[in-house]
Amino acid sequence: MNIPFSNIETLFFCDESKFYLNNGDFEDALFYFAIPVHKNEVKTVNDEFDAILKKHRIQSSVFHATRIFRGKKHRPDLIKDITDLIISHGLLCFCFKYPKNAVFEQTKLLDYLNDGDMFDFNDPEFQALFYFLILLNTHLVEDQRLNLPGPYQMFFDRNVYGKEDTEAFNFPHPNFAIKGMTFCEKSNISLLALPDFFGYVFRQVKNFQNKMDANQNPQPDELILACQESLLAINKAGLFFLIHLQDYLPNLGKALNINFD
């Protein structure tokens, strides 16, 4: 996998997951997942990931966790091997939550910034991406625990942008440590499989926990147990970082003169 960004030190591979009440989920929320890899480790991590897929005889040309683990193919050993890869390389796993019902309507007032090209505050998916970028950048600049060398470049599977073709955006502001983001087909950047996997594991665990909290008393199957073990291992290794927009709403409300409920 060739990454033509000679001035970039760390690459963030990102994915998203959507929760909708209308689809039987317990909330309306969007989650972004990001896993950074230093440019010098990209080839090693990529080769090791490919070796894991070959070991488990995964034939798919593009890794999609929802397909790999669907039906009776729970593949707990594959989940463990990918988890071990993440831990062995110390790959941080960022999870950002955008609570749509608490934020979307209230911050549509920023739609005066809409430009018909990049900004669209009337779109909840754009809002989620916008706040994710802003808060992740804040953490990268201020959180000394991360120890991630910059500058940074982010790579996404097609979602808000890149639906028709690869799209790239640069952030020239000197105070922005993230220098740009690129949206493309997942087949073009194989390590987009990492946030896809992490997001899948997180979603499985979250849905199960939501059912437990609702006193539905679900019985964990082999897949749920493997996902729980994966997330617990990543967290125990100190690699799990949750960024919850809800925590920043008081300051955001003061800045925008909004009273968030």
Strand count, sense and barrel status of the largest sheet are: 7 strands, mixed
Which strand order spans the largest sheet, edge to edge or round the barrel?
5-6-4-1-2-3-7
Tally of DSSP β-strands: 7
Rg from Cα: 18 Å
- Uncertain segments are none
SSE string, helix = H, strand = E? Answer: EEHHHEHHEEEHHEH
- The number of helical runs is 8
Which range best describes the helical content: under 10%, 10-25%, 25-40%, 40-55%, 55-70% or over 70%? 25-40%
N-to-C terminal Cα separation, in Å?
46 Å
Strand content: 15-25%
Q: How many structural domains can be distinguished in the coordinates? A: 1
Shape, please? globular
Q: State mean pLDDT (0 to 100 scale).
A: 90
**Based on helices, strands and strand pairing, what is the structural class?**
alpha/beta
